[in-house]
Design brief:
- With 367 residues, the chain is of the alpha/beta class.
- The chain has eight helices and 19 strands.
- It has a nine-stranded mixed beta sheet. Strands 6-7-8-11-10-9 form a six-stranded antiparallel beta barrel. The chain has a two-stranded parallel sheet with strand order 1-18.
- A hairpin with a 7-residue loop joins strand 7 and strand 8.
- The longest helix is centred in the C-terminal third of the chain and has 13 residues.
- The protein is globular.
């Protein structure tokens, strides 16, 4: 697959997979035509933090990069879980980045206007808990002044922070963008509402997608806080009561909703902490379909998709994405997967060049 190397959407595409395994190739603009009256779309409205901080290890003066990776307490910038690299920048593949200088509890890291103190190590040379002394407003100001968005080598040019914000970005809680949301704009949302398709949001602190260490990556995703507004919880309950579907824009929305639904008493508004992985053995309680980016087998995002479709369908999807040169990563194309209907398979591909209009012929479609 081709790595999307800039935030310009261009002629973005959508691979849509029905609950019976039917595959359609669509322009991503066809999202405005999909879904039925009574369905509810839910997006993650978290804005992305400037979570990459360059600096030096105070004890020996060697250069480092700190990537903030998880909150210890949501919204409190005095404590983070972080990944620390040695010299280099995002143009070097994450897995090729050198290790940082040896880190010990109590070490200080000078990061522009901020100082971070290593509180503890977590079994890997570069996975640490950090404490930022000072009042929260001063720390946030330092992050805004010195920090940059986390980037990877497939996007060589430095990105501005706003390149990592979706159209509905609000509270800055995410460490990397909830990138499925890049597929949405307010015109699409307005088109859904005109057709009786609902739209709501929640806030989920989307974490990092790679640590550069294959073993440490098995721990991803880290625990991630979320907040479900009362209006969103009520909308979900109404949707389910009338037989509508809940469609998650991104894996972070799936994690938040399914974790909330698993708690005693089921889905409720409020704060929570999404823990563990969703995978092939997970029972989905709320989400009927997910819009995601193009992910590769083995990635934690791909593992979550295995809760929606079995490996035969996902293998076919992967082959199709490769054969049709879909673009991967956060600025790439999109995949819509409806939760698989047990015992039903109907693999059908639409030919190249087909349009959403010719597929749906003006009807109110379902993916």
């Amino acid at each position: 697959m081709i790595a999307a190397d800039n935030p310009e959407p261009g002629a973005a595409r959508l691979l849509a997979v029905s609950g019976t395994g039917k595959i359609r190739h669509l322009p991503r603009s066809a999202l405005s035509l999909l879904f039925s009256p009574g369905d509810l779309i839910i997006a993650n409205d978290a804005a992305t933090l400037p979570a990459s901080l360059t600096g030096i290890h105070a004890e020996n003066g060697r250069p480092i990069e700190v990537r903030l990776a998880a909150w210890v307490a949501a919204g409190d910038p005095r404590h983070f879980i972080a990944i620390v690299f040695g010299a280099g920048d995002h143009r070097i593949r994450t897995e090729d980045r050198p290790a940082p200088p040896q880190l010990l509890a109590g070490d200080k890291l000078e990061l522009g206007p901020l100082t971070a103190v290593v509180e503890r190590l977590h079994g890997y040379p570069r996975l640490v808990s950090l404490r930022f002394p000072g009042p929260p407003e001063q720390i946030f100001a330092g992050l805004a002044q010195h920090g940059r968005p986390i980037q990877y080598a497939h996007v060589p040019e430095p990105l501005a922070l706003w390149d990592m914000w979706t159209a509905m970005a609000a509270e800055p809680l995410a460490f990397e963008p909830p990138s499925a949301g890049f597929a949405l704009d307010w015109r699409t949302i307005a088109a859904w509402r005109r057709r009786g398709v609902g739209f709501a949001s929640l806030t989920h602190a989307a974490g990092i997608s790679s640590t550069g260490d294959a073993v440490m990556d098995l721990r991803l995703p880290f625990d991630e806080p979320y907040r479900i507004p009362a209006a969103t919880a009520a909308g979900i309950n109404r949707t389910k009561a009338v037989g509508g579907r809940v469609i998650a824009i991104g894996t972070s929305v799936v994690r938040a909703l399914e974790h909330a639904a698993s708690l005693p008493g089921g889905l409720r508004a409020g704060d929570g902490l999404a823990q563990g992985r969703i995978g092939p053995k997970s029972k989905l309680r709320l989400v009927d379909a997910v819009l995601s980016g193009v992910h590769l087998p083995g990635e934690s995002h791909f593992e979550l998709l295995r809760a929606f479709a079995d490996d035969r369908i996902l293998d076919r999807i992967s082959l199709m994405l490769e054969a049709w040169n879909y673009r991967a990563h956060e600025f790439g194309d999109s995949v819509l997967i409806e939760r698989q209907a047990p015992g039903r398979e109907d693999y059908i591909e639409s030919p190249p060049g087909i349009t959403a209009t010719s597929i749906w012929a003006g009807a109110a479609p379902t993916p």
